[in-house]
Design brief:
Immunoglobulin-like, six-stranded antiparallel sheet, mainly beta, signal, five-stranded mixed sheet, about 325 residues
Length: about 325
């Protein structure tokens, strides 16, 4: 007799080895981003059904090349990123053999500031999950439709990290990758803050006031121990002059005329309302931008004409045009 737990294990094994399942890899550890070193160089070995991606050369820090490869493979919806002499995206590692790795500063890196990172021996390749503790996306926008000179707005920044995994088994206690540095720079200001990544998405809001009108550029840089990513926000800053005049007829639709005489011509580019003769009406006027604004209403009567019921309307109507 097999108990319930045994049945679940048996089902899992059957699913894993079913011939129709091609992406099964029993050695995958979801606890660590780095999955290990593989003794067989993929560049010279048998085809494992992956696609190659262009990344930086070996002079870059090992972590930067790994992140660059993982980003590319994540975008292509693969499961693994293999980093050797080049980047290869994979869905399984079944044809490769694992090998012990040395966690050292990679000798190919010429930069003394490179962080401690899993480094595989020569003629082998490092395999990572595509979802790891690196910065995969940075977005920035402002919280208003119109940005006005000398008026404060808020820049909203969203940072995404695919998965908050330990980098490797050997670096299990290293949590420095959770520390984020966010920097906003433009001609008007420069601000830098530190934050801790507690979730996959990090939101940050900062106020900013532009003192110059015209096109403005804000660059946003986000770094953690193993990755760097930036985005550029382009903003058109307006002068505080009147802009976007809007006029709204506050009369209920049921109290407005439902028709106009056929010969009545609406002036081109004019905002037009019709009301019943002798009826009171209210208009709401506003501008999207403006300081110390004065509204001036000029009424110019263009005539009132009686209309017979049989000509146009079912219930009779007259119109008055008021130009503002």
């Amino acid at each position: 007799m097999v108990n319930a737990r045994g049945s679940e294990l048996l089902i899992a094994i059957l699913i894993c080895f079913h011939p129709l399942i091609t992406n099964c890899d029993v050695s995958v550890s979801e606890q660590y981003w780095h999955q290990g070193c593989y003794s067989q160089n993929i560049d010279k070995g048998p085809d494992v059904g992956g696609t190659r991606q262009d990344i930086s050369d070996g002079s870059q820090c090992a972590s930067f090349r790994a992140v660059e490869c993982a980003r590319a493979c994540l975008k292509e919806r693969y499961k693994f990123a293999s980093v050797g002499s080049e980047c290869l995206c994979l869905n399984n590692t079944g044809q490769l053999r694992t090998q012990n790795q040395d966690v050292i500063k990679c000798p190919s890196s010429e930069q003394q500031s490179c962080p401690l990172f899993p480094c595989c021996p020569a003629e082998s390749t490092s395999v990572f999950l595509v979802e790891g503790p690196y910065i995969s996306e940075v977005k920035a926008n402002v919280n208003v439709d119109l940005v006005i000179r000398n008026r404060a707005v808020v820049i909203e920044t969203v940072i995404k990290i695919p998965k908050l995994l330990n980098i490797s088994k050997e670096l299990e206690n290293d949590t420095e990758f959770l520390q984020l540095n966010i920097e906003w720079t433009s001609l008007d200001f420069r601000q830098n803050v530190s934050a801790v990544a507690e979730k996959n998405e990090i939101y940050y809001r900062i106020p900013i006031t532009f003192t110059e009108s015209g096109p403005q550029v804000v660059d946003v840089y986000v770094t953690n121990k193993i990755s760097l990513l930036s985005t550029t926000l382009r903003i058109n800053v307006l002068d505080p002059s009147s802009l976007d005049l809007e006029i709204v007829n506050l009369v209920d639709l049921s109290d407005q005329p439902s028709c106009l005489p056929e010969e009545f011509v609406v002036p081109e580019k004019a905002q037009f309302f019709s009301v019943f003769q002798g009826a009171n009406f209210s208009l709401e006027v506003s501008v999207a931008v403006g300081e110390n604004v004065t509204f001036t209403f000029e009424e110019r009567s263009l005539g009132i004409r009686e209309v017979k019921v049989i000509e146009v309307c079912n219930d009779g109507c007259s119109t008055i045009q008021v130009s503002l």
